[in-house]
Write a structure and sequence with these properties.
Length: 365
């Protein structure tokens, strides 16, 4: 079962890299994706031969891969690249952890899926520095985190407001108070999420900007010390000492260039990440939370009482299942398992608040 799952992962990666290549306007970057697709196909064929599976039946992508491709078509294939790279890293970490647990030899091939891609990028003579930066920017700035944030934002809104709505419904038998409380919960939660996201983005930007300003001050006041730091960074990467000092000395002749290099190499800051809008992130968070929170509340706009409670529970259960299924885009777990697990946890939370609300309602009568 595990081997078949590994085979499907290779097939999906082959399929998605091919789609990335087909939808990449830059020929050099597209060529990198095509090479990765061929490498993943080779891995899939090797798995198939080992498991005595017909090679002709290989390239059948899973629903997960097809869904990611659909997301790429609708929004951007940058999202697909980020999700794919996150999967590659997760697989590499899983292999490493398994080998460490079983005290098996670490050969260095465990992270090949990630290493190969960056090796192609670094060694492809047709790929300019600008194109390399473009690729790295796509991966870092969009990534799978955006899709994950969308799923988790909707989940927060649905679970929190579902529990609130059921709590008030238990106390009022599904009366008009549910609509008022649910709407207040939706707005309060969405505004809180939006403010939290705005503070998070803004504070990160201000922190990075302050660190970058300090780095520029250090270059101007102690250029020799910064040159030595840069040389040590290059030496840590395996560059010979004489060459490292020569490179560092040359870079330090241009303060602007030196600042850019040190910000990236020493601080690990990608300046492009500072360009994100805190307001845009806040609105995005508000919208996602609202989508989830409106699901359990919507029946009470049209009806009330036990009938509204039943519709709210059913619609929320469906929403929870969809969210649980969507989470498997990143975890690779079974859709039915993840979907029903989410439904069970959500219903338990709602049942507890409904019961507490019912007890409070009885006590107040």
């Amino acid at each position: 079962m595990r081997n078949n799952k590994s085979l499907q992962t290779e097939i999906d990666a082959c399929y998605l890299y091919r789609r990335l290549a087909e939808n990449e306007s830059d020929d050099a970057v597209a060529n990198v994706f095509r090479q990765m697709s061929e490498i993943e196909l080779g891995h899939a064929e090797a798995f198939a031969r080992r498991e005595n599976i017909s090679v002709e039946n290989l390239i059948v992508p899973s629903w997960r891969a097809k869904t990611l491709n659909l997301i790429g078509k609708i929004f951007s294939y940058d999202y697909v690249l980020g999700a794919l790279m996150d999967t590659e890293k997760s697989l590499s970490n899983a292999i490493l952890n398994s080998k460490k647990k079983n005290k098996m030899e670490i050969t260095g091939s465990e992270t090949n899926h990630v290493k190969i891609l960056w090796s192609i990028l670094d060694n492809d003579k047709n790929l300019s520095g600008t194109q390399h930066a473009k690729f790295e920017s796509k991966h870092r700035s969009v990534g799978g985190n955006a899709i994950r944030a969308a799923v988790l934002g909707g989940n927060d809104g649905l679970v929190s407001n579902f529990s609130l709505v059921m709590g008030v419904a238990g106390a009022t038998a599904g009366g008009q108070g549910v609509l008022l409380a649910g709407t207040a919960g939706l707005l309060a939660g969405a505004l809180s999420m939006a403010l939290g996201e705005w503070i998070s983005v803004k504070s990160s930007q201000e922190l990075y900007e302050n660190q970058m300003a300090i780095e520029m001050d250090e270059i101007e006041t102690n250029p020799e010390g910064e040159m030595k730091e840069l040389a040590l960074i290059y030496m840590a990467k395996g560059i010979p000492e004489d060459q490292a000092y020569s490179m560092a000395t040359e870079i330090m002749t241009d303060k602007t260039k030196a600042h850019q290099v040190l910000v990236k190499e020493e601080l690990g800051i990608n300046p492009e990440e500072l360009q994100g809008s805190a307001i845009e992130a806040a609105l995005y968070s508000f919208f996602l939370f609202t989508i989830g929170a409106i699901i359990p509340l919507s029946p009470f706009f049209f009806t009330s009482g036990f009938h509204a409670i039943i519709i709210s529970v059913i619609s929320s259960a469906i929403g929870l299942f969809v969210i649980g299924a969507a989470i498997t885009l990143f975890t690779g777990k079974n859709v039915w398992y993840s979907g029903f697990r989410q439904v069970i946890f959500g219903l338990i939370a709602a049942a507890i608040t409904f019961g507490i609300g019912d007890l409070i309602g009885v006590a107040m009568k």
